[in-house]
Amino acid sequence: MKRLRDVLLGVILGGVIATGVIMSVPADGANEWSRLLPFSQQNLLVMRQARNIIEMYFVDGERPNEEKLFFGSMKGMVAAVDDPYTRFVEPEQLDEENMEMEGEYGGLGMYVGQRDGKILVMSPIEGTPAARAGVKPLDEIVKIDEKVIIGMEQNEVVKMLRGQANTTVNVWMRRTGENELLQFDLTREVINIKTVRLEMLGEIAYIKLNNFHHKTSSELEGALRDAKVKNASGVILDMRNNPGGLLNIAVDVASQFLDGGLVVSMKGRISRFDDALFAEEGKATSLPLVVLVNEGSASASEIVAGAIQDRGRGPLVGMKTYGKGSVQSLFNLPDNTGMFVTIARYTTPSEKIIDHKGLVPDYAVEGGPAIEKDDDAQLQKALGVMKNVLLAPKK
Asked: Of 357, 363, 353, nearest to 389 (Cα)?
């Protein structure tokens, strides 16, 4: 006991001595180097002391290497701004996200987001394992295999969900209105995302828009050309469970339905991020339009839907949207890492704020996408609005 006491006393005294040294250093250096440092000399010395303590006393495993400690520090610093969309990404994760924007990746087929400390499904992707299993927007992921993920960062959860094709993962979710957790046994697949799908429902062109990726605009143009060849009399644009994507693609999509004019306004902390984006003139179809949205419609989906609603181009049918009204920009760092930073918040043409509020549809209808079109109450309502309101003979 005496030996243990002496050891503990030595540790405590060591900390006191180290603290004394740190406190003796001036907080603000007068030279040029001090002005380049990201923190005061005192805070940097505290970080040095913390690293020494970890390397000397942490009981489990090998000493963490420089890169791991540095990445952890960066994540902590960026997370301190308390915005779930502002985040630091390591090189491997950045490559994965770039691949996802190209429209192909391996996993379960669902986009997740972080809100109020919870990891929520923003939307399952049509035709993927998650969608086929019945995963719904706003389901909260609680457990993956044997690991409870409450309190984990979004990128860590995504890494656990992804894996080699044909491997299985057990995911437990909490759904609003359900008393017990829901268990999903899912098999990973290579997810090839086709962002646009056209189906003729009689004389109505039904266009399902799943995302806003690099190929989305050209795919949508092709779908509208096909609809014209098939003599469509109207368009139902389905953006339910569409989590968004690239801002410039959202403007391109809006240009297919709006003949010029304002699509979205952005207001940032610094004036160079203030902007107003306009639809391109001469690209828009004149076909009557109805837009389907729900709680899984977010970000770029809300930009397009908000512009269409505000400009009187067509009504929204479904449920209130997700409410992500902020713009993120990727800043690439010299070591192949990156930072996604919220640089602005956007408003619709009528200056409606979407962030944390969402868009309210013109026709509120509960439900969601269904395999059988006759079972899809929201789609049936959209068809009714098209036929009985937009295409009805004017008196």
From this structure: 363
Distances (CA, A) of 368 to 97, 119, 359, 376: 28, 21, 17, 7
Determine the length of the chain: 395
Q: What angle do CA 348, 350, 356 make, to 5 degrees?
A: 45
Count the helix, strand and coil residues of the chain and give each as a percent rounded to the nearest 5: 35, 25, 40
Of the candidates 197, 193, 220, the one whose C-alpha atom is nearest the C-alpha of residue 208 is 197
Q: What is the pTM of this model?
A: 0.73
pLDDT in tens, 141-187: 999 999 999 988 887 898 899 888 889 999 999 999 999 999 999 99
Cβ-contact 292, 382 below 8 angstroms: yes
Taking CB atoms within 8 Å and a gap of at least 24, the contacts of 154-159 are 154/84, 154/87, 154/112, 154/113, 154/114, 154/119, 155/87, 155/89, 155/93, 157/112, 157/119, 158/112, 159/93
**Active-site amino acid positions:** 299, 310, 324
